[in-house]
Design goal:
There is one protein chain. This protein is an alpha+beta fold. 28% of the residues lie in helices and 20% in strands. The chain contains eight helices and 14 strands. GO terms for molecular function: transferase activity.
């Protein structure tokens, strides 16, 4: 069951397989990756937007992964694949291409300082590092990537030079490597865009009631009909790709829960933001995720009240998306996005293929000179 490059599914996400076909591939191998259960938690909330959770009891990082989507099968795939992605990052199958080798000896097309992600870095071009083989998605050339940027740490963390943060940013899966690469790149662009917003900067709002499409408009109507408030804001980034932030709040769970989405198709970007906001809310309601902040203290205090903004808002018709719009196949889309990344970051996205089967792909992508403010983006859900 090999997937091609042409997209065949467009409802809230772009895929080269229909969701039912993807689930038929994924479900039989869940046990191989330690996933024991994929549970439907949609009914724990009043909003009715599909959210699932995948359970992996022997995980070295998160034992519970969430998934969301326009339909139950999309949410089920999302949860299962997020858990499978983490398994691959915990059990990187790739051998080291270089051991204890300074970046200065490798002729890299990027400065190692551009991929250092933590504070107080002691990493220089002369620091001996372990490396994994990757490729530049723009030109296909082999490029070494520092090992700490590829995997997630085992329970006893190995020593690494201060400067690298263990992170799942850029870890993604897909029906094909190109599809997985696109999801990873969009995530990195989304987080870079959000991390560069000055604290306290005014938001540019979009009127949720102005949507008339077949995907986002029914989703917004479903959430608002349940008595929840929805806000949508646009996010201006460096890469020329539409990006949105969404927040959902209701009196029965008085915590403003956020979600973000990025995609060349603005409807897909917005759908991702909206469904992620609902997923974030259900994560708090279910209380099952390992790294959950103290959400229920905020529920008890009921100190938040998210209301429709008084600031000027754009209608969806007035919103002018950046970029060329959606592509019909993932290879062309990846080529355009890789060129855009190179123009901004100075090199194409650096991809390490972690796949352990031919049926689907898992990748870890790094883009030098991008930001990920985890504290800002993950605080309070």
């Amino acid at each position: 069951m090999t997937a091609g490059a042409a997209k065949v599914f467009f409802a809230g996400t772009h895929r080269v397989r229909r969701p039912e076909e993807t689930w038929a591939v994924v479900e039989p191998v869940l046990a191989r990756y330690g996933v024991t259960r994929v549970a439907d938690v949609t009914g724990l909330d009043i909003l009715g937007v599909p959210v699932m959770m995948a359970v992996r009891p022997l995980a070295r990082s998160l034992t519970v992964s969430q998934g969301k989507g326009q339909t139950a099968v999309l949410a089920r795939i999302s949860a299962a694949m997020e858990s499978i992605e983490l398994w691959h990052a915990e059990n990187v199958p790739n051998p080291l291409s270089h051991r204890a080798t300074p970046a200065a000896e490798l002729g890299l097309p990027y400065a190692v300082a551009g991929v250092v992600t933590g504070p107080g870095s002691l990493v220089t071009e002369q620091t001996p590092l372990d490396w994994v083989a990757g490729i530049d998605t723009g030109n296909g050339r082999a490029v070494p990537v520092p090992w700490p940027l590829v995997g997630l740490p085992p329970p006893v963390r190995p020593w690494t030079p201060p400067g690298f943060l263990w992170s799942s940013n850029g870890l993604a899966s897909g029906n094909t490597r190109a599809e997985a690469a696109l999801h990873a790149i969009y995530e990195i662009i989304e987080r870079d865009s959000l991390s560069r917003i000055p604290r306290g900067a005014p938001w540019s709002y979009v009127d949720p009631g102005s949507l008339t499409d077949d995907v986002c408009a029914p989703l917004i109507e479903r959430v608002r009909a349940a008595g929840a408030t929805v806000t949508i804001t646009t996010v201006e980034g460096r890469f020329g790709v539409p990006c949105f932030a969404a927040r959902v709040w209701s009196p029965d769970f008085p915590v403003a829960c956020g979600g973000w989405g990025t995609h060349l198709d603005p409807h897909v970007a917005l759908s991702r933001a909206l469904t992620e906001a609902v997923q974030s809310r259900l994560t708090g309601i279910a209380g099952s995720r390992d790294d959950l902040p103290a959400v229920y203290q905020r529920v008890r205090l009921s100190t938040e009240n998210l209301v429709e903004p008084d600031a000027p808002t754009l209608s969806w018709a007035e919103y002018e998306p950046s970029g060329p719009g959606a592509f019909d196949d993932v290879d062309t889309e990846l080529a355009w996005l890789s060129a855009q990344v190179r123009e901004v970051a100075g090199t194409g996205p650096l991809l390490v293929d972690l796949s352990t089967t031919d049926e689907f792909a898992v990748v870890k992508v790094t883009i030098p000179r991008t930001l990920f403010d985890a504290e800002y983006l993950h605080t309070g859900q």
